[in-house]
Design goal:
The structure is a single chain. Helices cover about 20% and strands about 20% of the residues. The strands form five sheets. Strands 1, 2, 3, 4, 6, 14 and 17 form a seven-stranded mixed beta sheet that branches. A four-stranded antiparallel beta sheet has the order 5-15-8-13. α2 packs across α4 and α5 packs across α8. The longest helix is centred in the last third of the chain and has 15 residues. This is TauD/TfdA-like domain-containing protein. GO terms for molecular function: oxidoreductase activity. It comes from Prototheca wickerhamii.
Length: about 375
């Protein structure tokens, strides 16, 4: 997408290379001081309602992914979940929900409860080539220096990025002994400051940036793809970013080399996202659920140390990639990111020729 073809339709009135406004523009040194504005703690009534829903679905079958919205009823919780979804899609772009009693539930109860919550936010998409509809964020001993390693299965830091879905949600089961803090920032606020400091790099951000597929290559596709960082489409702005994947793509000979403009942009964008002005830092506790928009929010994770002798007590989060029914239109540039579909409600997912969609109870 080149500057002279940028769409600037009527949806939000966003104009290319100009500051964007709205609730998705926020600052950590302001909003981060008021967690009561973006945190909700589930009541015991909500938990009982969710437990009843989990129990009611035991007849559905052995596979959690077979549970649908038609199988569950959440009279008081469902309206809240809808409100959270609206805030994430059309508001500030994130919500924290606390109080899921993961310590007293079995693993199956926990995963089923999380799946049921996710059903109220959108269609679940495959997290990886294995077809995990509920992903497991846990150190599996993979080498972070290996080009095809996805960092969620290591203890390494994950720099600011967006995932390959409209929304991403995390549920904390166990926290690390040390480190592993979650950070997130408004990509709209970063966009504004980036252009204020380096307006000359604005056009660079609307050209193709190459992503490595990290070995998860669908049939007929190349081991990399390209998409702009700043996507101005139908009067809206959608940001897609991952410096880790940009650098990794350079292992492919046919991918153009990163220029000095690219390197300058990476240095500035990553620094802005990580700055105290922009990044909220929060240590997820067991039972915490984080729900983020990948279109208006960047997220990252600190490196962590976890030498607990019991593998079952090591840092462990569950992840959902979700396609909600009330999302924004996206340009075709997102086809490679979102599993060859930009149709609202049917986006996202890594599916290879032999991928079998399922919901594992353990990391694998």
């Amino acid at each position: 997408m080149t500057p002279d073809t940028l769409d600037s339709g009527p949806l939000r009135g966003v104009k290319a290379f100009t500051p964007v406004e709205g609730p998705a523009v926020w600052y950590a040194d302001e909003l981060g001081q008021h967690p009561e504005q973006w945190t909700f703690t589930l009541s015991e009534d909500h938990i009982r309602e969710l437990e009843a829903a989990v129990e009611a679905t035991e007849h559905v079958g052995s596979e959690i992914q077979e549970i649908t919205l038609n199988d569950v009823t959440l009279p008081t919780l469902a309206p809240l979940l809808k409100r959270f979804l609206s805030e994430v899609v059309d508001g500030r772009g994130f919500q924290l929900i606390k109080g899921l009693p993961v310590d007293r539930w079995t693993r199956r109860q926990t995963v089923a409860a999380y799946w049921i919550l996710g059903l109220h936010w959108g269609r679940a998409a495959s997290n990886n080539h294995r077809g995990h509809l509920v992903g497991h964020i846990k150190d599996l001993g993979h080498d972070p220096a290996r080009a095809e390693t996805r960092l969620y299965a290591t203890t390494a830091a994950q720099p600011f990025h967006n995932d390959a879905a409209d929304l991403v949600s995390l549920l904390c089961l166990h926290e690390a002994q040390e480190g592993g803090d979650s950070r997130w920032a408004s990509s709209w606020a970063v966009h504004n400051e980036f252009l204020r400091r380096r307006p000359d790099l604005g056009p660079v951000m609307t050209r193709d940036w190459f992503f490595d597929r990290k070995g998860e290559v669908p049939r007929g596709k190349k081991p990399y793809f390209a998409i702009p960082v700043f996507n101005y489409f139908r009067g809206n702005l959608t940001v897609n970013w991952s410096s880790n994947y940009y650098f990794s793509s350079q292992r492919h000979e046919e991918v153009p080399r990163l220029t000095q403009d690219h390197l300058d942009a990476i240095e500035l964008f990553d620094a802005l996202a990580a700055s105290p002005r922009h990044a909220i830092r929060y240590r997820l506790q067991p039972g915490d659920i984080q729900l983020l928009s990948n279109h208006t929010v960047l997220h990252a994770r600190d490196a962590f140390v976890d030498s607990h002798p019991d593998p079952a007590r090591k840092r462990h989060l569950l992840r959902l990639w979700l396609a909600p029914p009330n999302e924004r239109p996206l340009p075709d540039a997102y086809l490679d990111v979102l599993g060859d579909s930009v149709e609202i409600g049917k986006r996202g997912g890594i599916v290879l020729e032999n991928t079998k969609l399922h919901v594992p109870l353990e990391a694998e």
